[in-house]
Design brief:
The complex is a heterodimer of chains A (about 300) and B (about 190).
Chain A (H helix, E strand, L loop, with lengths): L4 H23 L14 H10 L5 H14 L5 H12 L12 H11 L5 H14 L11 H9 L3 H12 L1 E2 L1 H8 L3 H14 L2 E6 L2 E6 L18 H16 L7 H10 L1 H11 L15 H14 L2
Antiparallel strand pairs in A: 1-3, 2-3
Chain B lengths: L6 H15 L4 E6 H7 L10 E8 L2 E3 L6 H13 L7 E2 L5 H4 L5 H4 L1 E4 L4 E5 L2 H14 L3 H8 L4 H14 L3 H13 L3 H6 L1
Parallel strand pairs in B: 1-6, 2-4
Antiparallel strand pairs in B: 1-2, 2-3, 5-6
Helix pairs in contact in B: 1-3, 6-7, 6-8
The chains are: A mainly alpha (about 300), B alpha/beta (about 190).
């Protein structure tokens, strides 16, 4: 089936919004959509929803209310670090993925001293549409771990090990959006206590959860996907491009953007076993149809 | 490769990429194989686009170095159409220093490829000038291109007078005379 840029945009937007609604439903926002089965990364989800704020004002309003009630679950330092790639002009689109005024709304809300009045209003309205997140739900493992370890790097460290098995401090810091020094100090303490195993590999120490202490493995399936920031960055880029000139309605410029983001797409596709078309076989706009189809298939896998 | 059937697609793509890279426009003067193919004068493939300069106020100006927004756009087009790096180049720009055939800028043929890109291709008459010069200098496919343009005796004579301004040495004049004789233009060779 052939895709037009308009059809691609429509399918992409629909898939993106369904994905967001399913994750927020799992976090306690009343919605018709079924709950997600994927692990949720709260900070990445907030950023992704801010990107789609103008496309779904109802969801954005509900999320603002959720944040007003449950902002204590949000790791603000991590959110700030993660947001850097979303609020500065994007490498390919030359404009930020999140509009300044939308992001200011989040920052204002999370800064409790400045927004106490607004928070009170949102909290009272929220009681009708929100339920507190049930931490025992498998997709909410991040919040469950924050409940045990506090809202700090330890929760993401454990999640990283459960999903990836092992890693060094630089890799973990990069993928979890924490300061490398902070990660290193925690890993060293955990290694001393025997909670993680440490093995020297070249210039780096490789850490992994000690099998005897893994008490959370039952909460996670081997297919769990947790690299939401690159996924959201990729799909928000595509969504913004498909909705705005000069890319919208132009299969050549969209296919050129597909080539720009091909390495990132390939990494995500690898995690799901989806084969991407070879760009060298499809010159110019010929790349649009096969790649648009693959991107939509990929997006469906993460619902 | 660039050929008759994809020239329009490639320049349209460059026009669109200009909207992404800087949203600025440019008018380029193009010679060489791409100009031959774009105007339908000679059907052949080429791997690059030879830019002579930019056109402003009816005059051709040296560019020196492509602005970053144009280079960025050209790089994307190269990737998207499997073209070699440097497919858009200023190779023949030094021709502006040594002198162009008289009236070249008035004979340019303009094609608008979108909102940002205008290409002015050099005319058939000026191709005869450049191809004669290239035939004497490098030979090969340039000779073939020159005679595919079916130059008349008068056109070849004007071109001969111009090439002699590009290299004033006696040796070069001898090369021109022997080339004309070899190509069956003895009468014209006698006039040089």
């Amino acid at each position: 089936m052939k895709n037009s840029p308009a059809k691609f945009k429509e399918s992409l937007q629909e898939g993106f919004l369904v994905l967001l609604w399913r994750q927020w439903r799992t976090l306690g926002i009343a919605a018709y959509s079924p709950e997600t089965k994927q692990l949720i990364d709260l900070e990445a989800l907030i950023l992704a929803t801010a990107i789609a704020a103008e496309q779904d004002q109802r969801l954005w309003t509900a999320v603002i209310r959720w944040l007003a009630c449950f902002q204590n679950w949000v790791n603000q330092a991590r959110l700030k670090r993660m947001s850097a790639a979303f609020i500065k002009p994007d490498e390919y689109l030359k404009k930020p993925l999140i509009k300044k005024e939308i992001w200011q709304e989040v920052e204002l809300l999370l800064s409790t001293t400045l927004s106490s009045k607004k928070t009170t209003t949102n909290t009272s309205r929220a009681k009708r549409t929100l339920t507190p997140p049930l931490l025992k739900k498998p997709p909410l493992l991040q919040l469950y771990l924050r409940g045990i370890f506090g809202v700090n790097a330890r929760a993401e460290l454990i999640l990283f090990f459960l999903v990836n098995g092992e890693g060094n401090s630089n890799q973990i810091a990069r993928e979890t959006f924490y300061d490398q020094k902070n990660i290193y100090v925690i890993l060293e303490r955990w290694a001393e206590s025997g909670f993680v195993s440490k093995e020297s590999r070249g210039k780096q120490n490789q850490y992994s959860l000690d099998s005897g202490d893994v008490f959370l493995q039952s909460n996670i399936s081997s297919s769990s996907f947790w690299s939401w920031p690159p996924f959201f960055q990729l799909y928000s880029r595509l969504l913004i491009a498909a909705s705005s000139p000069p890319w919208s309605n132009d299969p050549y410029l969209l296919s050129s953007l597909f080539r720009d983001v091909y390495p990132q797409t390939a990494r995500i596709a690898k995690a799901t076993g989806i084969a991407l078309p070879d760009p060298d076989l499809f010159p110019g706009e010929e790349f649009f149809n096969p790649m648009a189809r693959a991107l939509l298939d990929l997006s469906d896998r993460f619902q | 490769m660039i050929e008759n059937k994809n020239i329009e697609m490639i320049f349209s793509a460059l026009d669109k990429q200009l909207a992404v890279s800087g949203d600025r426009g440019i008018s380029l003067v193009v010679c060489g194989g791409t100009a031959l193919a774009a105007l339908g004068l000679v059907t052949r493939t080429t791997k690059d686009v030879d830019v002579l300069g930019s056109l402003k106020g009816g005059r051709i100006h040296q560019i020196g170095k492509f602005p970053s927004w144009l280079s960025e756009a050209a790089k994307k087009v190269a990737r998207d159409f499997n073209l070699p790096e440097g497919w858009l180049n200023l190779g023949p720009e030094s021709q502006l220093d040594t002198g162009l055939p008289e009236g070249l800028s008035k004979r340019l043929q303009k094609i608008i490829y979108g909102e940002r890109l205008i290409i002015h291709f050099i005319s058939r008459v000026d191709q005869i000038h450049f191809k004669l010069y290239a035939s004497l200098d490098r030979g090969g496919y340039h000779v073939e291109d020159l005679f595919k343009l079916n130059p008349s005796e008068a056109e070849l004579f004007t071109a001969c007078r111009w090439v002699l301004t590009q290299d004033v040495s006696i040796e070069f004049k001898q090369i021109l005379i022997s080339f004309l004789k070899k190509q069956g233009h003895e009468k014209l060779a006698g006039k040089i």
